[in-house]
Amino acid sequence: MIGAGVRRSVQYKKQNVKKSLVFLILFLGSIVLLIPLWWMISTSLKSPEEIMQYPPAFFPKGFHFSNYIEAWKTGDFTRWSLNTLLIAVVNTIGNVFVNAFIAYGFAQVRFKGRNALFVLVLSTMLIPGFVTMVPQYVLFSKLGWVNTYLPLIVPAFLGSAFNIFLIRQFMMTIPKDIIEAATIDGASHFRIWWSIAMPLVKPALITVAIFSFTGAWNDLLGPLLYLSDEKLYTLQLGLQTFKGSVQTQWNYLMAMSVMVLIPTLLIFFLFQQYFIKGSNISAGMKE
Amino acid sequence: MEKVTAGQVDTRMPSIPLSTKQKRAQAQSASSIKWKRNLTGYVFILPWLIGFVGLTAGPLVFSLFASFTDYNITSKMNFIGLENYKRMFTLDDMFWTALWNTLYYVIFSVPLTTAGAIMIAVLLNQKVIGMKVFRTIYYLPSILSGVAVYFLWMQMLSPSTGLVNQFLHLVGIEGPSWLFDPHWTKPALILMKMWSVGGGMLLYLGRMQGISPSLYEAADLDGASGPQKFFHITLPMITPIIFFDIITSTIGSFQIFQEAYVMTQNGQGGPGNSLLFYNLHMWNNAFKSFDMGYASAMAWFLFIIIMVLTFINLKAGKKWVYYDGGDDK
Questions:
Q1: Nearest-by-CA chain B residue for A40
Q2: What is the pTM of this model?
Q3: Which of B272, B303, B295 is CA-nearest to residue B97?
């Protein structure tokens, strides 16, 4: 009896040592991961002299918030923010509603060739985007869409494999009885999609909305390829050209970077659970 | 599966014996219902069908065709046979540089990020105080992307005023010039990539939390050590995720572009062309010199490489991926 108790307490102590060690590693790791973010903020608040100073200081001497205003003035950042917002919002609307529509078809309507087509949807995820980029550019330029937002917006209304998959996973879980009952009551599939399925898969829709919004907000490739008129620039494109005009004025560069990252950070902290949900669903993909 | 669906119709039919006429009417309405259902299904997936034909399948066929021509978007296309491929393999030195740079990046970044994600997931799967906060912190960098993050790392890796070299200096190491030294540019990008390893971590963590505790309890009774439990329980159980992660991150890493474009002078390829990645070279050919036929040939070669690698992954996966079919249906 006593022996067992001692053994248990030894094991308990061992457990505690292990837990403390894990905690310590995680804590140090967290600091390493957060330092770059701190460094960005710290640099953004430094005076021009402090930027050049060697060795660099970890904390800024004073808070030069004016860097933010100065940096904002070096380009047409107000216009670029509004442009980006517009593209991101339209992309989000397209992605949420169109992919939910397609996903309903794959989840709840039995039609000929459904399974084969769904495999095709999934396999498009394996096609590298760069392979279709040149012909897509040719197509959009023949349509006269270069230097407009259409190439950045229209594809969002034509479905994307990952989002279809994600919403379909949720739509599959809607009980058959509910759908059947609605059918007997004379509701069409379109009606069922809108008034029954959509409200039931809201978490998936929010996840798709978040990924679409942040994806469009942070996209450089599309704007870089299709937009040449400075008035049409997005923030990412503006920021990229901004690099050339301020050279190594890191305080300005970092101030702009902080401002561009703020919306993503806000969304992350507000909707954290949905980010995690999205990642977990994609883990289900290998099934 | 498809045939059973007729049952849906039957539920509405009365179970009184039917006359021939009624039977015919039923058969007719069943086939018209089936037809209508097919139509409904296709209406639902129509947006995807349009996108697939217009933005994926069509472009794939077009670029295959263009790869055998001297297409340059303005003039007409002249068929030049395998000329583009010949140029790619024998005349264009930069092609091999770009391919090598990309392979280097893939070979190091894929295993490192996979192993890193698993390690962090194991740590975050323990029960210690503040776990929720830790999970948030480790995941956070992976949601930050775009030009701002590249700027941040350009500053972090700045040879004289950057924080990385400052830290190395503290521990007595003379840090390299990172983005200015051809030998260190690619490790610099891999380091940056490691910062956001938490994105993949979440997948592993989700899977680990699905492993039945009884497996570990049984191992405890047998006196298994921590590493033994990891290698004999955790690792086999997460192989489906490793498999999925390797396939997707290989495809992703092959397409590295934005980092190199932003972190070098306007996509010139960096010092000694050390950051001239495959897609950067393709981009320069397609959209700087408008050599679209050649760029299409490059695109198709990349496509084939990725297809072959994915195929090998899928085949090899059958040998080492463990499907328990247990906890998730």
A1: B152
A2: 0.88
A3: B272
Question: Is residue B114 in some structural domain?
Answer: yes
Task: Find out whether A222 and A129 touch, Cβ atoms under 8 Å.
Answer: no
Task: For CA atoms B120, B123, B125, B129, give the dihedral sign.
Answer: negative
Print the domain residue range for B14.
3-66
**Whether B146 and A268 lie within 8 Å, measured CB to CB:** no
- Read off the tokens for B181: 């030294």
The domain boundary residue, chosen from B66, B92, B113: B66
- A168 φ, ψ (degrees, to nearest 5): -60, -45
For tokens 């608040």, the residue is A45
Q: Of B152, B225, B280, B301, which to mutate for an interface test with A (greatest number of A Cβ within 10 Å)?
A: B152
ipTM of the complex: 0.89
Cβ-Cβ contacts under 8 Å, A11 against chain B = none
Nearest chain B residue to A257, by CA? B148
Q: What angle, rounded to 10 degrees, do the helices at A272-283 and A202-218 form? A: 100
| Residue A220 near residue A287 (C-beta atoms within 8 A) | no
In chain A, which ranges are E strands?
none
Cα A217 off chain centre by: 8
Q: In the structure, how many helices (H) and strands (E) does chain A have?
A: 16, 0
How confident is the model over B12-51, as pLDDT tens digits?
A: 444 555 566 666 667 777 788 888 889 999 999 999 999 9
Do B53 and B103 lie in a common domain?
no
**Tens digit of each residue's pLDDT (9 = 90 or more) over B138-171:** 999 999 999 999 999 999 998 888 899 989 999 9
C-alpha–C-alpha distance, residues B67 and B81, integer Å: 9
* Nearest Cα residue to A258 out of A50, A32, A37: A37
A70-286: which CATH architecture? Orthogonal Bundle (1.10)
> Distance of CA B217 to CAs A9, A22, B121, B222, B229, Å?
18, 20, 20, 9, 10
Phi, psi angles (nearest 5°) of residue A16: -65, -40
CATH number at residue B310: 1.10.3720.10
